[in-house]
Amino acid sequence: MGVLRFLVTVVTTFLGLLAVTFFIGRIIPIDPVLAVLGDRAPTAVVERTREAMGLNLPLYQQFFIYVKGALSGDFGTSVLTTNPVLEDIKRVFPATIELATIGTIIGAALGIPLGVLAAVKRDSFADQVVRVIGLIGYSVPIFWLALLSLVLFYAKLRWVAYPGRVDIVYEYSFTPVTGFFLLDAAWQRQWDVLWDLFRHIILPASLLGYFSLAYISRMTRSFMLNELKQEYIVAARAKGLSETRIIWGHALRNAAVPLITVIALSYAGLLEGSVLTETIFAWPGLGLYITNSLQNADMNAVLGGTIVIGSVFIAINIFSDLLYRTLDPRTRAR
Amino acid sequence: MSETTYTPPLTRRDWLLSDRPASRTQARLGRAYVIWRRFSENRLALVGLLILMALLFVAAFADVLAPYSPIQGDLRNGLLPPSAANWFGTDEQGRDILSRLIYGSRLTLLVVGLVAIIAAPVGLLVGTVSGYAGGWVDAILMRITDIFLAFPKLVLALALVAALGPGIENAILAIAVTSWPPYARIARAETMTFRNSDYIAAVKLMGASPFRIVLRHIMPLCMSSLIVRVTLDMAGIILTAAGLGFLGLGAQPPLPEWGAMIASGRRFILDQWWVAAAPGAAILIVSLGFNLLGDGLRDALDPKEAGQ
Hints:
Chain B: InterPro entries: ABC_transport_permease (IPR053385), BP-dependent_transpt_permease (IPR050366), MetI-like (IPR000515), MetI-like_sf (IPR035906), OppC_N (IPR025966). The complex is a heterodimer. Chain A has 13 helices and no strands. Chain A is mostly helical. Chain A has 2 domains: 2-71, no CATH class; 86-333, Orthogonal Bundle (MetI-like fold). In chain A, α1 (3-27) packs across α4. The termini of chain A are close together. Chain B has a single domain, classed as MetI-like (MetI-like fold, Orthogonal Bundle). Chain B has 12 helices and no strands. The radius of gyration of chain B is 24 Å and the shape is flat. Chain B starts with 11 loop residues before the first helix and ends in a 7-residue tail after the last helix. Classes of the chains: A mainly alpha, B mainly alpha. Chains A and B meet through α1, α6, α7, α9 and α11 of A and α6, α7, α10 and α12 of B.
């Protein structure tokens, strides 16, 4: 893929995202002028405001202005928080990143070994168990599982902390710097805070981790089956290498290239999955921000959040594609 | 020399598996039989089929099966635990949860059915036209498909429903808008493999228009992989619809939509957990059924991929 073609892909995809959010913003049945002024404003004022908001311009010019605004980070003001949407998103996004990252780590750490096990012991009982675990992960509504696990692990067993990100006790003694609380607490050597953060994050992260586990283990199994029937495996066996070495050193190593793409995609999936999970766990991230804004018909915030999640999603897609091309010599142009 | 070499009587099975089918019907039935045999070897796939047949049955006979009204409750009997009279207990308005689940199956079928009816033909059309036409038509259509493919589905559906206004029709529309791109991709890939084959060339020589070739000769060939993909997507569609319902953007009260039922049960989750547990279990079972069926269909229709 030439550099030019790559750039065209990136630019059109982002423009497409903005076109869709622009379109969504236009189909709202509420007149944006009346939303600002209320329905008792005199006609002259309504007309003047309409003009000032650029709503009299042709659609393509409106879109142009919209793209320019979005590129400079102007998503308008949130009705709910009265802050610029970008500022709100900057504040809440680290919480989502933190959750999705821990979730992906859990998913990959468990999913890859399970997938390898399933492939090596193909059609055995272990394979079936891994398959069923994965299938349930694909089929269960995440918010329901989140509610039930909250009842079990918080209300009944008291193993984890109540919904939220950090205990109210630490709200004042702990001053985060980067917004990534786990890193901040470790950096400041506040071990009691770190433990409390862990008790809050472990349940939502495990749930997200389960979803990425379902995906990662299934793909790992498929990639490993593909590698294990290659001829270099026969050669390695003929050389007398141990089975452990063949599986983990040779087969998995070759399966690792497509696996990285899978992990990146599952990370993007978790950013999206966080929307429902965060509402259950009162996790103050982008997902909760979007759902709160939805309940209050705060469209600027909803669309701003959509653009940010969409952009990260697209960026991860492109990144994993590039990584795949770099790591796998077969995909390089001859 | 007598000509009486013994020919065993032709069983129905032999007729189906014949190498030289005498008619089109025989060939078709034979193929269906082979697929069914491969499919029915897979026990999990049969479980999936059973679950979906049960769902269809429950939805069709909801009026007969449901012991109580799904809408009318008795407020004096709110939040009763499961018992012989109310198998899954009652909700906060005293409505029988089992009856609501039974009627809710209709909404689930409505959502997956309509999304499939809207999204699959759109994807099929875009993909086959793109693959057959090639050139700049292909470039533009695939660029649009890729753009939609790159979006996070749930978030886009959320924003769309938020703009259109909550309701089951808008939820269905939003899910359909985000569901068609993979179908276009699959249909295009299939079309590319058929495009230069001899029989398409033969049809072309007979003077068939591109329109006819795509509609009558290419689209039918794309159907099997499309059906598999749509079946596998059904679970995701159900989960997205339930998520929208849970956030209050899907079916509106008093409709017994399963996701919305979980949302209303959420308030009593600590003391009356069954109110939220039952509809979630229903969602899990149905989407598991679709996943099992889709897996089985894929293995049966495309043995290359079997077990992967």
